[in-house]
Amino acid sequence: MGTFQVLKLPLGFIRVLEWLFAIFAFATCGGYSGQLRVSVDCMEKASSNLSIGIDFAYPFRLHQVSFEAPACEGIRRERVFLIGDYSSSAEFFVTIAVFAFLYSLMATIVYIFFQNKYRENNRGPLIDFIVTVVFSFMWLVSSSAWAKALSEVKMATDPDEVQLLIPACKLQTNKCGSVHGPRWSGLNTSVVFGFLNFVLWAGNIWFVFKETGWHKGTTKLAGGASEKQAGTFNQQPYNQGSFDQSGSYNTQGNMSQPSEYSQVGGPTSYSNQM
């Protein structure tokens, strides 16, 4: 039977938050699709197209995204491609999120159903600690890379920038404009969840470290040193014994004098001295 009490502890509770936040991270990024629309108003109105839809999605290989724009020369159309490839940062972020989800879910199951195996030979806590440190670092790197890539994706898909790619818009006789731009709320949320995952994994390092033999060994050493120090202060001071003048040993270290001093072998009378 599983010990679900571990979920009430920070170690188990944070693990549950980790796999939940990992789901939100890769779902908001990997499931994104956006659209922007631009208009090309040619001098010849018959050639104009006032609503050109441009769709793009994860993994944001924008150089493969194309659309047809009027050449403003009769009915001829031109195929235009967007600029940029941001798939590496996006896929790296989603990959870290997926693996973090799988590991945190597996760790939660181990905490609940295999607690004895986890603590056996201290191998489980050590592996858990190392993996937690690695994922903390990877979350920071992947979230930072994806945040930078997202800013470049926003710039590359800005309708004002896309208009500059259309040859007909470079002629002053034609008028080009933007109908609407993409919605970025989902991708912005993915970046937020990325850094939240970093905070969760970095904060969980301490609680996983407490389960390792390193922390327990340090605690034992600190406890033994404190007990030894306490025992030293609790010892009674050493009282050195002394001999009194009468020849008896005083164990309390006090010099006791006889009540009357009598000279042994001294003269008994004045006449004897004469």
TrEMBL record:
Its main location: membrane. It holds the Pfam family MARVEL. Keywords: Glycoprotein, Membrane, Transmembrane, Transmembrane helix. PANTHER family: SYNAPTOPHYSIN, SYNAPTOPORIN. Residues 244-274 are annotated as: Disordered. InterPro entries: Marvel (IPR008253), Synaptophysin/porin (IPR001285). It comes from the Eukaryota. PROSITE patterns: MARVEL (PS51225). GO terms for cellular component: synaptic vesicle membrane. Residues 6-213 form the MARVEL domain. It is found in: Membrane. This is Synaptoporin. The chain crosses the membrane at residues 12-33, 92-114, 126-147, 191-209. Belongs to the synaptophysin/synaptobrevin family. It is a multi-pass membrane protein.
